[in-house]
Structure formats: structure tokens, C-alpha cells
């Protein structure tokens, strides 16, 4: 490894940029590795899963950059700064930084700010410092922000390069008007909805963007709201239809008409990702959606028939089909709809990697399921949901159905399959489960996720641990029912 040049090392370490533990370990190997890793760590130093309000050295590094005038001003205000034990730092750390995370920085500031006023002053000086020192800003998380960054010197230049913004709706519209004057190149916009009031500033910010590709909205109300904040925000997305590729929506306490969303969705013709959580939509209108570039679809509370229509209307690029289906227990067409859905997947989605399907323990379903496994060779993860009618009839608990399902997985599971999720009522006997695991040897270690309580029994725990030690099972997780879903 010592013969690798700096450019090669940089590319290797960049692949580990989300793994702070590995990067910190590599940091200590030698000077070359250290010089290569530091710019990667400091590009977005707030992203790592560490306790920032206990990391006093980060506070020391940041305040080291303060000019003597700023230090004197803060001391006059009664704020004690760390004493500098050296004349210079080993690296110009802030020159590598491309991001600001307000919440994390506030945690770091709390180390040296005993009062709210002291904290406010330190925030002001640190934000001003970052705006001056960072060559360009790519990422800004401004949740809980108190300072108007766009008024700092050089803010216009730095914020012009902003690619990703995370914000919330409680921030006043005037702040967003200010951002809209200087930020027009945002590609990823993540909005946490903490207020039920209309925010026309966010509307203006969206409207002014030239290349918005990713839009995420997540409700996070502290208490139930009864004012509709959505009508103002979502219709503006239709003006970004040519560039918008990813739409992620998580609603909470949604008690309003959703007609606005059904007007917006058909216009967003370039979507590659469509994720809608916790919302029932009109299935008749959903069937008409046509997305030729769709790669990921995740919609809660969708009928099998509607899902089939969306898949048929996609362009054959789907890689993730992660759906929560609903259907009536007395629905006479379930079996036929389910068979059509399975057939539609393996005929239209050759690239699918993650899939949730509802099956029955009928011969027809097993035949179609096996065809799906044989045709979808990229499948890595599958969620199996049992038709409720089967539970009532107790069909799947028959020895033949148990054995057939596991045999199909052994015979026809694609090479890359490494995760199987069983939602409820898949309680295989010890003997059948062990026979399955024995036959699985030689394949990639398998992760199994289930909500059935039977696997908590001592005999099952021993069996599972045995095959974990053998490397057949990577993980076996017994979770709450809703957590089985992707």
C-alpha cells in the first residue's frame, strides 16, 4: 500500500467517506495517508456520528482562526477562548471545508458559551469565519439558524455554489427571500415541516432554482395541525418538472384533501424516485401515472392492481419496488391480481434489486414466483407478504407449502440475493429451517428479517446462532411488524 500515489489513495479513501471509524484509523498510518485523508474528513466534518458537544478540540481548531481583533472583542464580552499552545496548525483545516451544519456547530459552541448571549456572539463570529475561509459552500443545514448568513461579507460568492440545503418551515419567509437572491443552483432541497403556516419564502426559493433534482418533504409537527400548509408549496414543483428526478414525501397528521398532490404527480415526468409515506391516494388516478425513467417506487397503501399499472407504465428501469399493499379480505380478484403483478414484474423489470410482493400458497403463485426469481437476476432483497386469506385458511402452515416455498428459494434464488424479509405468519419448523440453511451454504451470507415471535424461542435462537457462526447467516433480526418493510 505504501507504493500507492496520493491520487490513488484519495480515490480509495473517498469511498470510505461515510465510514469515519475506518478513516480515523487510516489517518494514523503515515504522513502521506494523513495528508490525503484530512481534506476528505474536513470537506463535511459535521456529518459523522460522534458526540460533537464533547469534542473540545473542534472548538479549539475553529477558534484558532479568529483574528486578534475578534478574540479581543469576545474577551471583552467575558467569553473565555482556549489558549493557543502552538503558533500554527498542522493543516489549514477550514480551507477544505465545504459545508455548514448549524445544529452541530451550535453544539460545539456550547462548550465555550455559558449563556445564550455568549452563544449568539460566538455563532456570529464562527459563521462569519466559515463564510470567509471556505472556498465554496456545497452543503448547508440551517435548522435552528438565528443569523442571516447572506449578509456576511463574501456570502454572495460562497452561497452561489450551494448544492444541497436542509431547512425547516418555521424559519420566516423573509429569510428564504434573502437566500433566493443568492442561491440559484441548489440541486437537493430537504424541508422539515415544523409549522402549519404558509411559507411563501420557500416557494420563491424553489421557483428561482435552475437545476433542482431532488426534493424531500418531511412533516415533523410537535402536535396535530389543522391548517393546510401544502397547497402553497407543492404546486410550484411542476415548474421544475424538466429537472426534478427525485421526490420523497413523508406526511404526518394528514387530514386534508390530497387533490393538490394528484395534480402535481402527473406533471413530474422525469422522476427516477417516487416515495410517498403515510398517505392514501386515489388509486384510479395513480394508475394513470407514466414515468419512463422511474428507478425507485415506494408508496404506502396501494392496491396490487394499481401497482401493476404503474410498473407497466414505467420504462423498464425499476430497481426498487417497495410497496405497502392493501386489499380487502373478501376481495374476489386478489389471486388473479397478484399473479398478474408478479408476471408484470418479471416481464418489465429485469433490473429490479429490491422487491416487495404479496403471494398466496397456491401452485399458480409458486410457479410465477419461481419464474420471477429466475428472470430477475439482479434481485438482492425481497419482502414476502402473505395473503390474509391464506392466514385464515391456515394454508401456508401446511407442510407442503412450507417446504415448497423454501425449495423454490434454494432452486431458483438469483446469485445476488442476500436478504429475505418475511412479514407475519412465516413460522417455519426447526427441521425445515435447518434444511434450508444447510442447502444455502456456499451462497452469500443471508440476512433474514421477520416479525414472527416464534423465532424468539430458545431452540430457534440456538439454531440461528449456529448458522451465524458457520457464516451461512449474516443477520437474523426479529422486529416489530412495521419495521419489516423496507
Mean pLDDT: 86
* Total beta-strand segments: 15
Separation of the first and last Cα atoms: 38 Å
CATH level 1 name of the domain at 314-486 = Alpha Beta
Structural class by SSE content: alpha/beta
Low-confidence segments: none
Largest sheet: 15 strands, parallel
| CATH architecture descriptor name of the domain at 314-486 | Alpha-Beta Horseshoe
Strand content: 5-15%
Which outline best applies? globular
Count of helical regions: 21
CATH topological fold name of the domain at 314-486: Leucine-rich repeat, LRR (right-handed beta-alpha superhelix)
Assign a percent range to the helix content: 40-55%
CA radius of gyration: 27 Å
Overall description:
The protein is of the alpha/beta class. The protein has a domain at 314-486: Alpha-Beta Horseshoe (Leucine-rich repeat, LRR (right-handed beta-alpha superhelix)), CATH 3.80.10. The chain is built from 21 helices and 15 strands. It has a 15-stranded parallel β-sheet that branches. Strand 7 (273-277), helix 13 (283-286) and strand 8 form a beta-alpha-beta unit. Helix 1 (6-14) packs across helix 3, helix 14 packs parallel to helix 15 (334-348) and helix 16 (363-375) runs parallel beside helix 18 (399-412). The model has no long low-confidence stretch (mean pLDDT 86).
Summarize the structure.
With 486 residues, the chain is α/β, with parallel strands linked by helices. It contains 21 helices and 15 strands. The mean pLDDT is 86.
